[in-house]
Amino acid sequence: MRHRLEYVPVWLLLRVIGALPRAWSHRIGIAFGELVYRLHPKLRRVGLRNLEIAFPKMPRVERERILRGVFRSIGRQLGEFCRLPRYTAENVSKFVAYHGLENFRNADSQGKGVLVLTGHFGGWEIGSYGHSLYGHPMKIVVRDLDNPLIDILVRRYRTRHGNQTIDNRIYARALLKAMRGGETIGILMDTNMTPPQGVFVDFFGKPACTASGLARLALHSEAIVVPGFTVWDEEQKKYVIHFQPAIAVTRTGDVEADVLANTAAFSKALEAIVRQYPEQWLWIHRRWKTRPPGGEPLY
User: Fold this and answer.
1) Which of 182, 190, 240, 241 minimizes the C-alpha distance to 214?
2) For residue 8, is pLDDT > 60?
């Protein structure tokens, strides 16, 4: 019963905001993000602590500016997400553009499968949806939302144009099969993990327990790893999917050493885009929660 009561207002919110002109959808989403920023001190504390870890010499006022931008970015994406059913193959170019599409096409043309390295950055939900409308449906590794009815609703939005979601708890066999079929898979690898699912690699100068599944998939297949991040471009008023050149996968024959080396390389690619657009990454997640043996808590 509780899940049904939660479902109704979320469903209405999506429909009402999605029916508005795009500029208004964004304004409402951003206003909601600003409200959460003001009313959620725990998230502010986590965000500021993360920014302190990543940018120890940065003035506090600048960290606060970036953090406020994070909430605005999340709110904008919420407003755009509500409008996804209005996207079509004919109008998607008005909302989503590409930068570096040739990097994806070069990888895809090899027929070995493409592993898109991404994270909770910019418009991560918008990018995968727009990519499918451009004719490139993909499989997306996701975690179930706590409310099963809302989870069903969100999955319907995500998969309207050919994308498929795969549960992150049972994805290994399904993804290896997809790789053999030359498919594209998007994996977010920027959340805190615990061993053995994660390994410690450098992230902003601190060891962070990072998902190693992407590296293991790359090693067990011939798939090409291509970083792909969806950035909000204020000048164009569009989300831009940035595909970067493929990352060469290290293969020495020592599996665990290769997993560590490749995960470190993938983490470096994520850090680079976050440094470029710090206000578009999810700083409010306790990224350094898991510590190496003997390491002191950072939160």
Assistant:
1) 190
2) no
- The reported pLDDT for the residue numbered 12 is 76
Tokens of 26: 């964004």
Q: What is the pLDDT of residues 255-285, one digit of tens each?
A: 999 999 999 999 999 999 999 999 999 999 9
CB 188 within 8 A of CB 138: no
The pLDDT, as a whole number, for residue 141 is 82
